[in-house]
Amino acid sequence: MELPWTEKYRPKFLKDVIGQEKITERMTAYIKDKNIPHLLFAGPAGTGKTTTALCLAREFFGENFKDGFLELNASDERGIDVVRGKIKEFARTMPIIMDFKLIFLDEADALTNDAQQAMRRTMEQYTKTCRFILSCNYSSKIMDPIQSRCAVFRFRKIQRTAIKEYLKKILNIEQVKFTDDGINAIVEISEGDVRKSINILQSASVIGEVNEENVFNIASYAKPEQIRWILKLAIDGKFLDSRNMLDNIMLNYGIAGEDVLIQMSREIFYVEEIDDKTKMKVVDAIGECNFRLVEGANERIQIAALLAKIAILKY
C-alpha cells in the first residue's frame, strides 16, 4: 500500500528540510559535536518540528535510529502515568548506540501540569542517559522550569516560494498536470503549513489536473475575491445580496461558519474601497461573531447578523 504523500515525501535529512535553514544549521552543529542538549521546538503546525526531530535522530544514530529513539504524542498520552511509566522506563536504561538516547514528545503543550512536573524531575535525573526533544504549538503552555532546561527553537511559517517549489517537485515526480493558479491556491489556503499543502495537493491530484477550481472544491474554501465581494456588498449596504452570495458559497463549498470568519478576517484588509477605520470596525464585529460561534450559537443566524452589522456601519 502506497504511503500518503506527507510521509512519502517527508525529508530524511536535515539539509532537505525546507524553510528552517537557521534551525537545521544548529542541529547539524549538534550532530558534528556528538552532543545534544534538551530541545524545545515551538511553532505552528506543519512547519517541520516533527520532521526536524526525526532527521536529527536519523543523522545522529544512523539508520537504526529507532533503537535509541522513542517517539510519543502527548495528546494521546498526556497524564502523569505516562511520564512515570513509558518515559521513565526508557530514560533510565543505558543506551546501546551512542552515549545517550533521545525521547521525542510531540504536542508537549497537551501535558497536564502534574505530568510536566514529573517530566522536569525525569529530565534532571536521567540527563546522562537520555535527552528530550519537546514539540509544541505554544511554548507559553510549557512550564518555565522545563523551558529553562531546554534550548528553545522557534519554527516560523514556511515562505510561499519555498512551498511552491516543494509542491512542484512532488508533482513532477508523480507526473501530475498542474497550473500555476492551482499551486497558488494551495499556498493561499495552507498559510505556511507544508503538511496541509501536501494533503490538499494529493487530494486535488486524484481528480486530475491540479487547478484552482479543483483545489478550492477539495479544500472547502471560498475564493478570496468572493469573500472580498461579499464584504464590499455588505459595507455598501446591500445586505440581501451579500447574504445570498454567502449562502451560495457555504452551500457550494461546504464551508463551516468559523472558516468563513477566518477568511473574512484575512480578506478585509485587501478590500481597497474601505478605509482603515471601517476595517477596524469590521474586524471587531468578526471577532465578536467568532466568540458567539465558539460558545455554541447558530452559525447561520450569527453570520447573517454580522453582515447586517457591517451593512449599517455607514449609517
Automatic annotation (TrEMBL):
It comes from the Archaea. The keyword Ribonucleoprotein does not apply. Keywords: ATP-binding, DNA replication, Nucleotide-binding. One of its GO terms (cellular component) is DNA replication factor C complex. One of its GO terms (biological process) is DNA-templated DNA replication. The keyword Nucleotide-binding applies. Residues 35-165 form the AAA+ ATPase domain. CDD domains: AAA, HLD_clamp_RFC. One of its GO terms (molecular function) is ATP hydrolysis activity. Part of the RFC clamp loader complex which loads the PCNA sliding clamp onto DNA. Belongs to the activator 1 small subunits family. RfcS subfamily. Heteromultimer composed of small subunits (RfcS) and large subunits (RfcL). This is Replication factor C small subunit.
